[in-house]
Amino acid sequence: MNTNHNSENQLQGNTLAFDVYGTLVDTYGILIALKRLVNVQAELFMNTWRGKQLEYSFRRGLMQNYVDFNICTRQSLDYTCLYLKINLTNDEKEELMQEWDVLPAFPDVKEGLDNLKKSDCRMYAFSNGKAENVKRVIQNAGLEHYFEGVVSVDDVKSYKPDPRVYSYFLRKTESAAMKSWLISSNPFDVIGAVSSGMRSVWIKRTPNAICDLWEIEPTAIAGSIMDLNTILKI
Predict the structure, then answer these.
(1) pTM (2 decimals)?
(2) Where are the domains of the chain?
(3) Could you tell me the end-to-end alpha-carbon distance of the chain, in angstroms, rounded to an integer?
């Protein structure tokens, strides 16, 4: 009893910003549809598509030529088809786009969020996606009841890791930077958060994953969402 009470006190007052795509939900859930449509090239297709999706968001943020994340996703899908010389119909492309709404939660997520929900910390979904899209994703994954709300970069018209995005999160949630933690499996995201004055936990989802070897490091590293209850007692 005393141990649980102390744990809750140590987490009290923290605001947790959870990245969604690749952190809470598995973007590789699209592989099932891809294997049916492109067969043996499915994994290469997914890696190329996801990489271009992020690249396009970075470039648009730097260019200050914002479009919403769905457009980045569709344009990177079109690029991938051309690059790999795979001819998909518009209906097949639309089918793949719809798969982003029904991505499965990683196996550790619900138990990990359940543990955090017992403590006195505030939890938000914080994403490059538009708010209505993110709400649909977390609802379909059965995660919506864990979060006080969704904070989207769409309100800023830029993308992570633009410092304005993290500042907006702090303003929107009325949180102090040093009591706010960005939780993400994306190294660019955790580095961006720390660079902006927040704390961060990098979720290292695979043993071979590498965080960028910069002078800026994540505050902590976890192998699972279930590890956060212990790590956030720092």
Answers:
(1) 0.92
(2) 2-26+103-231, 28-101
(3) 20
Taking only Cα atoms into account, the Rg of the chain, rounded to an integer number of angstroms, comes to 18
For 125-150, the pLDDT digits (tens) are 999 999 999 999 999 999 999 999 99
Q: Give 25's strand partners.
A: 21, 105
Are the CB atoms for 133 and 70 separated by under 8 Å?
yes
Q: Which tokens go with 16?
A: 């947790």
Q: Of 175, 214, 208, which Cα lies nearest the Cα of 194?
A: 214
Contact 104, 96 (CB under 8 A): no
At the topology level of CATH, where does 28-101 sit?
A: DNA polymerase; domain 1 (1.10.150)
Q: DSSP letter string over 214-233?
A: SS---SEEESSGGGHHHHTT
CATH T-level assignment (fold) for domain 2-26+103-231: Rossmann fold (3.40.50)
d(CA 156, CA 170): 13
